[in-house]
UniProtKB/TrEMBL annotation, chain A:
It is a single-pass membrane protein. One of its GO terms (cellular component) is mitochondrial inner membrane. Component of the ubiquinol-cytochrome c oxidoreductase (cytochrome b-c1 complex, complex III, CIII), a multisubunit enzyme composed of 3 respiratory subunits cytochrome b, cytochrome c1 and Rieske protein, 2 core protein subunits, and additional low-molecular weight protein subunits. Component of the ubiquinol-cytochrome c oxidoreductase, a multisubunit transmembrane complex that is part of the mitochondrial electron transport chain which drives oxidative phosphorylation. The complex plays an important role in the uptake of multiple carbon sources present in different host niches. InterPro entries: QCR9, QCR9_sf. Gene3D superfamilies: Cytochrome b-c1 complex subunit 9 (1.20.5.260). One of its GO terms (biological process) is mitochondrial electron transport, ubiquinol to cytochrome c. This is Complex III subunit 9. Belongs to the UQCR10/QCR9 family. Keywords: Electron transport, Membrane, Mitochondrion, Mitochondrion inner membrane, Respiratory chain, Transmembrane, Transmembrane helix, Transport. Its main location: mitochondrion. It is found in: Mitochondrion inner membrane.
TrEMBL record, chain B:
The keyword Translocase does not apply. Its EC number is 7.1.1.8. This is Cytochrome b-c1 complex subunit Rieske, mitochondrial. The Rieske protein is a high potential 2Fe-2S protein. The lineage of its organism: Eukaryota, Metazoa, Spiralia, Lophotrochozoa, Mollusca. One of its GO terms (cellular component) is mitochondrial inner membrane. Residues 162-257 form the Rieske domain. PANTHER family: CYTOCHROME B-C1 COMPLEX SUBUNIT RIESKE, MITOCHONDRIAL. Belongs to the Rieske iron-sulfur protein family. Its cofactor is [2Fe-2S] cluster. Keywords: 2Fe-2S, Disulfide bond, Electron transport, Iron, Iron-sulfur, Membrane, Metal-binding, Mitochondrion, Respiratory chain, Transmembrane, Transmembrane helix, Transport. It catalyses: a quinol + 2 Fe(III)-[cytochrome c](out) = a quinone + 2 Fe(II)-[cytochrome c](out) + 2 H(+)(out). It is a single-pass membrane protein. It holds the Pfam family Rieske.
Length: 73, 259
């Protein structure tokens, strides 16, 4: 019954009119793109955990500070 | 039920019968004719023999065509949930929704793909990063002495940056706009009143004006004698417009990025 109501709402609210249908297409395309982008980025970061610059930043910052100190001396 | 009575003139039969016609010839097997299920109110096909009057000799009977032929069973081809004629449209809602959902799904994919194509085409038209980087120039303001104009090259054009004195600023800000050919207030031309940044190309015929010269001690174009004031506005001579002010932004550390 609830599912039937959902179907009816979906049809009446979105599919019945071309304007809302097209709007739904555009909005869902936007949402789809965001979803794909964010998921892709997260996947990339997950696969490359420990290799990204933010992971090794401290190490290189310390190195750079050390070499600068040497030059100054 | 369907039979050919004696009175009829029809003799069609599938078996050999004696020639005398007093006996009833029953050529059609006695089988109950198929009657399709119909809604009440809709007239079914006739089940009984139909008689038609053909003339003076009396009524004759005609066999109504093919009422005994079974209507093929198409239930296997019907949509699930819509098996018989009586529960019409029961499965139609689902089918409609499925169709629309598929259309919306493909539409979404189409919009996404189309956007990607348009984005690719448009970004191929726009300038590349290296060109954009070349199109900007960063100038440190501290290097320019007060009261002097320095000339830089920007997109192949001379760029005038003038460090104005307090007197010059005051004089330019108090100019009556009604006396100007191309009325523009000094504050609209300089983000920081201490520095005037403008393109050093005369708006008359494109010569490069001379800085700190002319009747208004701004810029003077030697080609045809156009006088600009210390705000780069045309005051005298043939030029129609003020010197062009490019887009620029001050960064921290007292420097400016033009372009």
């Amino acid at each position: 019954m609830n599912l039937q109501g959902l179907r009816k709402t979906l049809y009446k609210g979105i599919f019945q009119r071309t304007s809302t249908f097209v709007l739904a297409c555009v909005v869902s395309a936007f949402a789809f793109e965001r979803l794909v982008d964010v998921t892709g980025d997260q996947l990339f970061l997950f696969i490359n955990t420990g290799k990204m610059y933010k992971d090794v930043e401290k190490k290189y910052a310390a190195l750079a500070a050390g070499s600068e100190g040497e030059e100054e001396e | 039920m369907i039979s050919i009575p004696k009175s009829s003139g029809l003799t069609a039969c599938s078996q050999i019968v004696p020639a005398f016609r007093s006996q009833l010839v029953n050529v059609i097997p006695k089988k109950k004719p198929f009657v399709p299920k119909c809604k009440p109110g809709i007239h079914p096909l006739p089940t009984a023999a139909i008689s038609a009057c053909t003339g003076l000799t009396g009524g004759s009977q005609v066999r109504f065509s093919h009422t005994d032929v079974r209507v093929p069973d198409v239930d296997d081809y019907r949509r699930h949930g819509n098996v018989s004629n009586t529960d019409k449209n029961k499965g139609q809602e689902d089918a409609k929704l499925f169709t629309y959902l598929m259309a919306a799904g493909f539409g979404t994919a189409g919009v996404y793909a189309g956007k990607d194509v348009v984005y690719g085409v448009v970004s191929s038209i726009s300038a590349t990063k290296d060109i954009l980087a070349m199109a900007k120039v960063e100038v440190s303001m501290a290097d320019i002495p007060e009261g002097k104009t320095m000339i830089f090259k920007w997109r192949g054009k001379p760029l005038f940056i003038r460090h104005r004195t307090a007197e010059e600023i005051e004089a330019e800000q108090n100019v009556d706009l009604t006396t100007l050919r191309d009325p523009q207030h000094d504050t609209d031309r300089c983000k920081d009143p201490k520095f005037l940044i403008c393109v050093g190309i005369c708006t008359h015929l494109g010569c490069v004006p001379v800085a700190e010269a002319g009747d208004f001690n701004g810029y003077y174009c030697p080609c045809h004698g156009s006088h600009y004031d210390a705000s780069g506005r045309i005051r005298k001579g043939p030029a129609p417009l003020n010197l062009d002010v490019p887009f620029y932004e001050y960064t921290e550390e007292n420097s400016v990025v033009v372009g």
